[in-house]
Amino acid sequence: MTRLRTELPGPRSLELAARRSGAVASGVGSTLPLYIESAEDGLLVDVDGNRLIDLGSGIAVTSVGNPAPAVAEAVHEQIDRFSHTCFMITPYEGYVEVCEQLNELAPGDHAKKTALFNSGAEAVENAVKIARHATGRTAVVVFDHAYHGRTNLTMALTSKNMPYKQGFGPFAPEVYRVPMSYPYRDGGLTGPEAAARAIDLVEKQVGADNVACVLIEPIQGEGGFVVPADGFLGALSAWCAEKGALLVADEIQTGFCRTGSWFASDHEGLVPDLVTTAKGIAGGLPLAAVTGRAELMDAVHVGGLGGTYGGNPVACAAALGALRTMREKDLSGAARAIENTVLPRLRALAEKTDLIGDVRGRGAMLAVEFTEPTPDVAGRVAKACHAAGVVVLTCGTYGNVIRLLPPLVIPDDLLAEGLDILEQAILGVTK
Ligand code: PLZ
Description:
- The structure is a single chain.
- By secondary structure, the protein is of the alpha/beta class.
- The chain is built from 13 helices and 15 strands.
- The chain has helices at residues 11-23, 57-60, 69-81, 93-105, 120-135, 152-157, 191-205, 232-243, 294-297, 313-328, 331-352, 376-387, 412-428, and strands at 36-40, 43-46, 51-54, 112-117, 139-143, 175-178, 211-216, 246-250, 274-277, 288-293, 356-362, 365-370, 390-391, 393-395, 401-404.
- The chain has a 7-stranded mixed sheet, sandwiched between helices. It has a 4-stranded mixed sheet with strand order 1-2-3-13. Strands 11-12-15-14 form a 4-stranded antiparallel sheet, covered by helices on one side.
- A hairpin with a 2-residue loop joins strand 1 and strand 2.
- It is globular and about 60 Å long.
- The model has no long low-confidence stretch (mean pLDDT 98).
C-alpha cells in the first residue's frame, strides 16, 4: 500500500524548509526534511499528508506510542491544574511518585533514591557530580564509542569527534577513555578479557584510587548498538566494587522496556550504583533522572542538586502515564516479540549479501553493521528507506550501522512493511 501522496519532500515541507533556512541555526540538523503534523502508532504524518513508517521513535523516545493515550490524558489533567512551581521552591506529588517508581524499577533491591532533570546530558552530568561528591575522587572512566551528550562535560565523555565535539573545546578534564568490548571488531576477546584490558589501562594510567566512577552504556546507542561480550559488564562491576569506584549505567537509550526488560542492565544481572535515564521515560516530554544507592544519592548537601525545570509537573504526569502503559501493555514483552520478528529476518538478509558484517541488538534495539567502516553504504540504505517513506536512523563511530528503534506498540503489519523496504534498500545497494 502506498502511504506517500507526493514526492518527498512535498510542497508544504519544501516551503517550511525555506522558512527554516532563514530562521533556524544551521548547526541544528534534521535527518529527513519532512515536517510532521501528526502521528499515530508507528506512523508519522507529514504536512503534505505523507504517512511515514517510524522505525526510530524520535531516537528511542516514543516507546509507548505517539501520541500515547495515557500520556496525553495525564498531561492534559496536569496542565489544567498547574504547569510549574519549581520543585526547589514548592514541591508536588508527581515528582515524588516518579522517584518512588524509578527506585522500585531500577536494578537491585537495595534502598534507592532519585533526582529528576530535563535531558539525558543533564542526568549524566549530575551522575558525575554525585559520584565525585560521594567518593571524594575526580576521575571518570568512559569507553570508546560512548555517547553521553552534548554539554561541555558530556562532550568530554562522548567518544566521537564529528559532529559532536569538533571546534567546541576545550573539554572538561579528568575524563579517561578505555577500549570497549566490541565483539564484531575486537578480534573475539571474551567479556572478561576485554574488561581486563580496560582495567589494566585504568590501573596503570589513572590509578584505581582516583576513579570516582566508570560510566558505561550497557548497550551502546549512538556508538553503534554495540552489545558487549558476556561477562564484560560483570567484570567491570566487580572491579568497581573492589576499588570503591562507582559503576554508573547510562540507560538513557536502553531503558524502559526498550531491550525487552525494564533496563538493559537486567539482562546480565548488573546492579549499577547509579543509573541515568531519560528518553522513553515520559512518552516524549523532557524528563531525565539519576537513580542510585540511597547513601550515595544522599551524600550531596541539601541544595547541591536541582534546576528550574527538573521534574516539571507536566513531564512527571507524562512519565506516570508512560510507566503505567509499559506495565499494562507489557511493553518489555512487546520488545521481545519485536526482536523475535526482526532478528531472524535481518540474519536471513545477512546471508544474502556480503555487505552486512554483523546483526545484533536486544529487544527493539536492533542493528545491522556493514563491513566497510565508512558511512557510504549505511547512508545510501538510509536514503533509500527515507525516499520510500520509512524512517530509519544510522549510528556508529564509522557511521556504518543502520539501527532500528520502533515504537514498542508498532502494529505487526507496519513493522513488516518497514522491514520489507529496508531489505529491498539493502539488497539494492551495490558496493
Ligand atoms: N546518553 C546513552 O543515547 C542521547 C542524541 C542524539 P539528551 N542520544 C541521542 C543527538 O545527536 O543529540 C543520549 C544517549 C545516551 C545520553 C544521551 C543524551 O541525552 O537527552 O540528548 O541530552
